[in-house]
Every structure is written in C-alpha cells, then in structure tokens.
Amino acid sequence: MKISRRTFLINTTASAVTVTVLGGCASNAGDESGSSVTAIDTVLKPDDTLVQHAQAANQRLLKVFPKGFALDATHHPHISCLQRYVKTKDLDKVYDAVGDVLVGEKPATWTLTAYKYYYIPWKEIGLAGIVIRPTDGLIQFQRKLVDALAPFEVKMGTAAAFVTTKEDPDINQPTMDYVENFVPDEIGDKFNPHVTIGIAPQEYLKQMLNEKFDDFTFSLIGAGTYHLGNFGTAREELKSWNFQS
Length: 245
Prior knowledge:
The structure is a single chain. By secondary structure, this protein is an alpha+beta fold. The protein is built from five helices and eleven strands; from the N terminus they run E-E-E-H-E-H-E-E-H-E-H-E-H-E-E-E. A hairpin with a 4-residue loop joins strand 1 (3-12) and strand 2 (17-27). The protein starts with a strand and ends with a strand.
C-alpha cells in the first residue's frame, strides 16, 4: 500500500494551536516487505543547538568505530517519545491521533536541558545518546501519545516491520524487543528522553560517561512519525509537523 506523507505547520499561540497542511508525497512503509505491521517512532525534533552537539559526538564515535552509522538524511537526530508496532493499514489514523495530541500540547514553547551521555550495551558495543532532563510536559505528552495510539498498536513485530537497505540489511533482536517493550518499560517515570548519537565499543563509551558534560538548553522545532530502522534509528519520515510560534 502507498502511505501518504503529509507535512503540517503547527502555529502555537497563548490561546490556540492551529494545524495547516503544507504538502505531501508518497512513502512506501510496508510496501517492499508486504508487512501488515510497521515499526514507528513518534518523535520531537530538536533545534540546531542539540543537532550540532549530536553530530559532533557522532563524528567522534565514527572515528573509533567506523562501522557505526552517521547522523544523516536517513538517521535523523530526534527525541523518541513513543515506539510502537502498528497496523500498516491504520497509519493515516495514527497520524491523525498524533496530530490531535500536538494540538492539545505546546512543545514549541518548551525549553529543555541536555545534561549527560548514556549508552545501551549490546555485546561488545553500545548505542550511545545525549540524555534530556525529563519534564512534566514531556511525560504528559508521552502519556497522551500512548493513549492515543493504543487502538492501532499490535504487540509484536518482526524484522519485516522495519526499514532495511542493501547496506544495512539486518534488524537485531534488541531493536525488535525495544519496540515491543517500550510500553511499559520506557514510559512515565522510566522515560529516558535522549538523542541517539551512534555506536562505539563499550570501553570507549565508559570513558565518555566519565568526562565532564556541560549542560545546555535547546528548543523544539517540530515533531514527526518515522519508520524505524536497526538500533531504533529514524530512517524514513512518514509524517512531519513543523512548529511555528
């Protein structure tokens, strides 16, 4: 099936939030594999301040682990708010549900703080990220997403639910498990908002965590729903919402 990718502009004011359709193009989530299930990530998009920090850290990791991935057009820096397996046929309903949550919240008005590195271990390597300090707004936004997308989710998915390419043909089991268990393992007081920065040997990442991290603040410029790839990367944008204050 063909899935419409539409971009929205969200105009936030003190009294209202409006959503305006800007345009769209086709996406092929679920097409090539014939999968009836799509692994998605609903994300918040950070401004250039955080993106530049993430890209600098990513380049650092690539120097010690060239087999890792670069942050680029198919590995978008983002803050994952909710990863789920959903029915591919319901993706348009998913987008509408996310849009409704965004109308009720005002992420464009938030100031967030990045305050440390972390990583998730896997075999000899680790998937690293910059951690964002949780706020009441972030946690409430996530809870509303969980409730809004619950009617469309399925419990389990296979590698066919993800984006694969000739260069990156495999989906590892921890990636599939992470999406399956995101609810309840990564929500509420267990929510760990972060921006993934890449892969490196665990010994090197342990050294990074021991370094002094200078906190910095940033804002949000939009939201999106992405088709996930290996290691939870945001590989293909299915729907985008742009914030305008």
